[in-house]
């Protein structure tokens, strides 16, 4: 949680909507001498924690900008790994999301995403 959000929360000022641009997972992995996909996996852990905290403090809307159209220009192996990771994560988390009354929706052009 950022310092500003933490301060607002402590003052009882809970934002209604938080939007996060997910960026830097690949750079994080590189800095830790790990494959890029490891950075994306670590990003999932961050999203899980952010989602939990937002639910606990009463944030009504959380928007995650996760995959820009420019990402399709990455190497095929990386895009494929990201799509597999996306599907695996959604399948693993869907029960927990439902249990916590979290509604999952997508925004944008979905035509290139895996059908499943």
From TrEMBL:
Swiss-Prot/TrEMBL GO biological process terms: polyprenol biosynthetic process
InterPro entries assigned to the protein according to its UniProt record, in alphabetical order: UPP_synth-like (IPR001441), UPP_synth-like_sf (IPR036424)
Keywords carried by this UniProt record: Transferase
Pfam hit, one: Prenyltransf
GO cellular component: cytosol
Gene Ontology molecular function: any one: magnesium ion binding
Keyword Metal-binding: no
Cross-referenced NCBIfam families: uppS (TIGR00055)
Protein name per Swiss-Prot or TrEMBL: Di-trans,poly-cis-decaprenylcistransferase
Species in which this protein is naturally found: marine metagenome
């Amino acid at each position: 949680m950022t310092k500003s959000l933490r301060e607002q929360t402590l003052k009882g000022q809970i934002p209604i909507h938080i939007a996060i641009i997910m960026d830097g997972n690949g750079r994080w992995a590189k800095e830790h001498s790990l494959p890029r996909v490891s950075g994306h996996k670590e990003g999932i852990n961050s999203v899980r924690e952010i989602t939990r905290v937002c639910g606990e403090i009463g944030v009504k809307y959380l928007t995650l900008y996760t995959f820009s159209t420019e990402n399709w220009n990455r190497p095929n192996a990386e895009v494929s790994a990201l799509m597999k990771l996306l599907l695996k994560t959604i399948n693993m988390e869907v029960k927990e999301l439902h249990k916590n009354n979290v509604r999952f929706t997508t925004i944008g052009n979905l035509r290139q995403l895996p059908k499943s």
